[in-house]
Design goal:
Structural class: mainly beta
Strand content: 35-45%
Protein name: Right handed beta helix domain-containing protein
Number of helices: 5
Shape: elongated
Number of domains: 2
Helix content: 10-25%
Low-confidence stretches: 1-27
Pfam family, one: Beta_helix
InterPro entries: Beta_helix, PbH1, Pectin_lyas_fold, Pectin_lyase_fold/virulence, SO_2930-like_dom
Organism: Chitinophaga flava
Distance between the termini: 25 Å
Oligomer: single chain
Keywords: Signal
Length: 429
């Protein structure tokens, strides 16, 4: 624990020094042909400027609080929107008349937003759709309350190419604070996410790196998902050197999310990292502590939808493959968080823990081992019997490390989850 505290303090110092070195000054607009500047009270002019924006434009918003219904930018190139800093330039959407995004960016090639806070929209705070070369820096996206009335996503690039999100903060999202979906090439670094259902989610996104972030105080810290019926398949995701801790809060996703088979309403309180149906994932050198249901979960689409095979195509395979988990530091309390007992997935986790104690009364913990694997492999599709056909590779030092939940037999008398990790130990590391 002392080692972690020292590391955490060093990380805070490092991020602070990086922030001081890399935060670009507002006057740094070299390379933009049109340069506009506005102050508080000029909201109508700002909204008009966004709607009529031309290629190669920078807009600087001076320090102060601005009130908008919504803002929109579409079909332009080389655009920069910058404020005086997230504690100085505040875009308030609390008076929004309908449930759209606070700021919507569509089909922009070369988009930068930096140095401001967006808050309290009815829908997503900032959605960046079908855009390229996206840079989100020193942006805070927050809701004043964290409940099902808030928007789904705080920072939300989707169907984009080449995305960099750094030094950002997200709070209060009823889905994911920082979400990257159906995107090719993305980096999330030096960010924080707090009091969201999911701190950060990488969904159907290929070639992503998530590092040196802090995801804490959410329902679930970090999700890597591949879901069906989307435009592309994800994979090749690396997550390392992150602090993922104390994600034990109740799930306050919107009712529609709970009603959807695939919604984030399925995330159990107390989840550190959840890997769902994703492939080619490497999770390493992270501090994953006090997520008190499970530090890391690796599950297939069958775990939440028995008919997942019917959704298979070139863009979706329900079985997670080539998952490498190594050299993380994991700490977990001996009891579940109270919110887990009221959650449908949480109740399944509690049932697995109880069954382990039935099988081994000497277990001195009432919750799960650090890593839970649903045990549903490609054998269900190929009718083979290999012990690890999908290359789950684990190299960790913790005791009480692993449980194969034997999920396919949970409703039968033959159900027997087991804790033998040997079939899944890495040989190549």
């Amino acid at each position: 624990m002392k080692r972690y505290v020292l590391y955490h303090l060093l990380m805070i110092a490092l991020i602070g020094s990086l922030a001081a070195c890399t935060m670009r000054k507002p006057e740094d607009v070299k390379g933009y042909k049109i340069r506009l500047s506005f102050g508080p009270g000029e909201e109508t002019k700002i909204a008009e400027a966004f709607l009529s924006i031309k290629d190669s434009t920078s807009i600087f918003l001076k320090a102060g609080k601005y009130r908008f219904d919504n803002l929109s930018i579409a079909q332009v190139s080389h655009i920069k929107i910058e404020g005086a800093g997230p504690d100085k330039t505040i875009l308030d959407f609390s008076a929004q008349s309908q449930g759209g995004e606070g700021l919507r960016v569509t089909d922009v090639k070369g988009f930068t937003i930096a140095g401001m806070t967006l808050k309290d929209s009815k829908g997503d705070l900032i959605k960046i759709n079908k855009s390229e070369k996206v840079f989100v820096s020193y942006v805070h996206a927050v809701w004043s309350v964290s409940d099902s009335t808030t928007g789904g996503y705080a920072i939300y690039p989707v169907m984009c190419k080449n995305v960099l999100i750094e030094n950002c903060y997200a709070q209060g999202a009823s889905d994911a604070g920082i979400y990257v979906g159906q995107t090719d090439s993305a980096i999330v670094r030096y960010c924080k996410a707090y009091k969201n259902v999911a701190g950060c989610e990488i969904e159907n996104t290929s070639h992503a790196e998530v590092y040196k972030n802090e995801f804490y105080g959410n329902t679930a810290g970090f999700l890597i998902f591949d879901l069906p019926d989307l435009s592309q398949r994800g994979g090749h995701v690396k997550a390392y050197n992150n602090d993922i801790h104390e994600n034990n809060e109740r799930n306050f996703a919107k009712a529609g999310s709970f009603g959807s088979t695939w919604g984030v309403g399925n995330a159990a309180p107390g989840s550190g990292v959840v890997i769902l149906s994703a492939s080619d994932i490497e999770l390493y050198n992270n501090n994953i502590f006090n997520n008190n249901s499970c530090a890391i979960s690796v599950v297939s689409g069958f775990f939440i939808d028995p008919n997942a095979a019917a959704k298979m195509n070139d863009h979706y395979d329900p079985i997670p493959k080539d998952i490498v988990i190594h050299n993380n530091v994991m700490i977990m309390a001996d009891t579940f968080p109270s919110a887990v007992y009221e959650h449908h997935t949480g109740k399944i986790l509690v049932a697995i823990a109880k069954q382990l104690k039935v099988q081994d009364p000497s277990r001195n913990k009432s919750n799960l081992p650090f890593i839970i694997y649903d045990g549903i492999t490609s054998n269900v599709l190929t009718h083979k019997t290999g012990p690890n056909p999908d290359n789950l590779c684990i190299k960790e030092q913790e005791e009480d490390l692993f449980v194969n939940a034997d999920a396919l037999r949970m409703q039968t008398k033959k159900w027997r989850p087991y804790t033998d990790v040997r079939p899944f130990l890495c040989n190549q590391l």
